[in-house]
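Repro:
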Amino acid sequence: MKIPAGFLYLAVSTYGIYWGHHMITKRHATSPVWYWYMDLLLGAILLGIGAILRWTRWQARTSWLPVLGCGMIAVYYVGATVVTLRRYVAGTIPASGPQLGIALLPVLLVLVLLTVALFEKFRPELLNPPSQSFD
């Protein structure tokens, strides 16, 4: 479980860094919610650092980085989901149900990764059970 979760952390971190940078520099630097994009960018950077350090000898001391990074990214995505759903219900977003569902898939991925990060930090024995020997 350790290697696939690490690659997912890196993928989400890369996308978060790209999206946060894009939104800050290109589109919404003057938006009233610009701090959401800073939260996304900083969370993605922390998640990336945590994903890389989990394969080093410092994993035990830095296991809180993926939790903090996923949490910061989840705050952005949950807030963006609330705004998107409000606009969808109000009729200002002309999307079909399946289009909206596909647009909200990253939210599900981030929430699953947050759950994995929490389990890795606080209950690692559930993700990596000890091997049993029948000797």
